[in-house]
Design a protein that fits this description.
Keywords: Membrane, Repeat. Its main location: mitochondrion. This is Mitochondrial calcium uptake 2. By secondary structure, the chain is mainly alpha-helical. The chain folds into two domains: 7-42 and 50-118 and 132-166, no CATH class; 182-305, no CATH class. It contains 16 helices and seven strands. The protein has helices spanning 7-15, 28-36, 55-59, 67-78, 81-91, 101-122, 140-146, 156-178, 187-196, 203-213, 222-232, 235-247, 254-265, 271-281, 291-295, 298-311; strands at residues 18-20, 23-25, 47-48, 98-99, 154-155, 185-186, 219-220. The longest helix has 23 residues, at 156-178. The two termini are 26 Å apart.
């Protein structure tokens, strides 16, 4: 059965540790592990969550995340916040930048529906997951936004703060994981983080560049790492800027690359981190990056592909 599910649903099932009336749920810890690690070796089986008078007390601080919310949280981590603001405004019919619980659930269902439609269009077996239904129990996220009774309204400022805090928490955890707990990340560690997501025939060349071009002792700060993570959520716009150089049939130098980042994302990346990226992905040693050398890398290509595929539906 699990082989007929989308990749995201499979991953959700793999990391979920709670089950209630046939529906699987994650704890906040499960969600963090699903983002941080490739796979989960679970010593204990799935716990069954009852719905008695001690339900939430038994869960304690572990919390509850549904599959729909899992997709929603992943989207927060990988997409520009501007898109959420537009969707928020569309649901906000009276223009006060506040929405009710039922309106917020519409937004989650749209995101989940996109995942299901991508499954149908990319899976050769043509299978489709069951229609996502609203949970019969209040999840931690629902109570966080709308209170225990679901009657409170959610203001966009609060929602934006939640998105920013979530991104910051994940970025800090990834930074600590790859920096081995240090307050700085060696450039070799940053390369390991980048290449962790890379699965191409050029991976050996990338590591050769790391060994030969990156000087020992050089490091990247947490702020630089966060800026680069923010940049990766804006890659679709950046790809358009890079295509301008591709049409001119010329590679991009560091200063031009930096300007393209600024134009596409509204922010600047430090010369330190840009120099590192150039040295890793420069396959022909000309100290420039062609469109294929950078956007052809699987780490960046898969992020852009996912955005483009979703916008087709």
């Amino acid at each position: 059965m699990i082989g007929k599910l989308s990749l995201r649903k499979q991953r959700f099932m793999q990391f979920s540790s709670l089950e209630h009336e046939g529906e699987y749920y994650m704890t906040p810890r499960d969600f963090l592990f699903s983002v941080m690690f490739e796979q989960m070796e679970r010593e204990l089986g799935i716990q069954t969550a009852g719905c008695g008078s001690t339900f939430f007390r038994d869960l304690g601080d572990k919390g509850l995340i549904s599959y729909t919310e899992y997709l929603f949280l992943l989207t927060i981590l990988t997409k520009p916040h501007s898109g959420f603001h537009v969707a928020f405004k569309m649901l906000d019919t009276d223009g006060n930048e506040m929405i009710e619980k039922r309106e917020f659930f519409k937004l989650q269902k749209i995101i989940s529906k996109q995942d299901d439609m991508m499954t149908v269009n990319t899976n050769e077996t043509g299978c489709q997951e069951a229609t996502v239904k609203e949970p019969e129990i209040n999840t931690t996220l629902q109570m966080r936004f709308f209170g225990k009774r679901g009657q409170r309204k959610l203001h966009y400022k609060e929602f934006r703060r939640f998105m920013e805090n979530l991104q910051t928490e994940i970025q800090e955890m990834e930074f600590l994981q790859f920096s081995k707990g240090l307050s700085f990340m060696r450039k070799e560690d940053f390369a390991e983080w980048l290449l962790f997501f890379t699965n191409t025939e050029n991976k050996d060349i990338y590591w050769k560049n790391v060994r030969e071009k990156l000087s020992a002792g050089e490091s990247i700060s947490l702020d630089e790492f966060k800026s680069f993570c923010h940049f990766t959520t804006q890659l679709e716009d950046f790809a358009i800027a890079m295509q301008m150089f591709s049409l001119a049939h010329r590679p991009v130098r560091l200063a031009e690359f930096k300007r393209a980042v600024k134009v596409a994302t509204g922010q600047e990346l430090s010369n330190n981190i840009l120099d590192t990226v150039f040295k890793i992905f420069d396959l022909d040693g000309d100290e420039c990056l062609s469109h294929e050398e950078f956007m052809g890398n699987r780490f960046f290509y898969m992020i852009i592909l996912e955005v483009c595929e979703e916008r087709k539906h």
